[in-house]
């Protein structure tokens, strides 16, 4: 089991206060890593870090701003002396405040350019900047693991029928923004793996499926029916895969896309 140990390692998780982000942090802490909880809200990041344990730290970060990302690097180096693991988890997924307008606004013909651009900024530029800033330190020290969180929708097009309710009415469309950005992340992983392979920095993608989190019953039913396991994921279903990619258990793995989706993309 020493292969999975992260003792004496330091991990940075962006988007750490999200549903899966918190589970990433918990898993890394349980495996022995010092965890930097990095999210836009500095106070809540610090509070959650203390819940994990006194040795962990939280910080506010804007992944689209290089000065903010560099500040986070300086903070983690000052406290721990190194950075060994980066989990690029921060991302925007479509949310519309008014459900009555969700169908019209999410339709490709009407999808707002500014919303698309914001997704590009966070989901792609954010991963670029964090990888550049933290990964450069890993390359200098000759070791490190970068884990980019993508999605099944980075590999296949969205099935718009799962957003139809019991009456067959389309309630929402999955927009182009999320699949486009997550697809880009998968190939960005390959670029970084090739670029830093001789520096001892491993770069892999973790592609999760959808997590059940209080969605409408029709959606949960529709989604579950498309998976081989017949259910949506639980928030903690990705913890084992994350620790595998972060640890020496995956020492000969780089440039890969580890798909954990209940069989959604298998058929």
UniProtKB/TrEMBL annotation:
A Pfam family it matches: adh_short_C2
Domain of life: Bacteria
GO MF terms held by the record: oxidoreductase activity, acting on the CH-OH group of donors, NAD or NADP as acceptor
Keywords from the named record: Oxidoreductase
InterPro entries named among the record's database cross-references: NAD(P)-bd_dom_sf (IPR036291), Sc_DH/Rdtase_CS (IPR020904), SDR_fam (IPR002347)
Assigned protein family: Belongs to the short-chain dehydrogenases/reductases (SDR) family.
UniProt-recorded name of the protein: NAD(P)-dependent dehydrogenase, short-chain alcohol dehydrogenase family
Source organism of this protein record: Mucilaginibacter mallensis
């Amino acid at each position: 089991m020493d292969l999975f140990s992260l003792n004496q390692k330091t991990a940075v998780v962006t988007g750490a206060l999200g549903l899966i982000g918190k589970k990433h942090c918990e898993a890394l802490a349980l495996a022995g890593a010092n965890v930097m909880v990095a999210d836009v809200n500095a106070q809540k990041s610090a509070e959650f870090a203390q819940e994990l344990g006194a040795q962990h730290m939280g910080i506010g970060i804007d992944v689209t701003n290089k000065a903010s990302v560099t500040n986070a690097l300086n903070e983690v180096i000052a406290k721990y002396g190194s950075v060994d693991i980066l989990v690029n988890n921060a991302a925007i997924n479509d949310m519309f405040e008014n459900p009555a307008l969700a169908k019209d606004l999410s339709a490709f013909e009407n999808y707002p350019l500014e919303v698309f651009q914001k997704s590009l900024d966070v989901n792609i530029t954010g991963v670029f900047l964090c990888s550049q800033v933290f990964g450069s330190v890993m390359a200098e020290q000759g070791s490190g693991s970068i884990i980019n969180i993508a999605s099944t929708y980075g590999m296949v097009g969205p099935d718009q029928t799962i957003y139809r309710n019991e009456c067959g009415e389309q309630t929402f469309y999955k927009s182009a923004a999320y699949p486009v950005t997550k697809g880009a992340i998968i190939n960005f992983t390959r670029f970084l793996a090739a670029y830093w392979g001789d520096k001892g920095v491993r770069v892999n993608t973790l592609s999760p499926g959808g997590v059940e989190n209080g969605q409408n019953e029709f959606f949960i039913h529709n989604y579950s029916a498309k998976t081989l396991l017949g259910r949506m994921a639980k928030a903690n279903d990705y913890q084992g895969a994350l620790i595998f990619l972060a640890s020496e258990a995956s020492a000969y793995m780089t440039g890969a896309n580890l798909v954990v989706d209940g069989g959604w993309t298998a058929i």
